[in-house]
Fold:
Amino acid sequence: MITLGVILLIIGFVANIGILWTLGIILVVLGAIFFLLGSMGHAVFGRKHYW
Structure:
């Protein structure tokens, strides 16, 4: 999810498309939150580990 967010950020920046930029930021933030929750041992979407 973080990788997809970064790709969308890059495409949105290069192509100057605002919606891709916004979606990229959202995906990076959500991916980071899910990664942190999973690494602390909390179940994320029914999984013990999220990576």
The two ends are 9 Å apart (CA to CA). The mean pLDDT is 84.
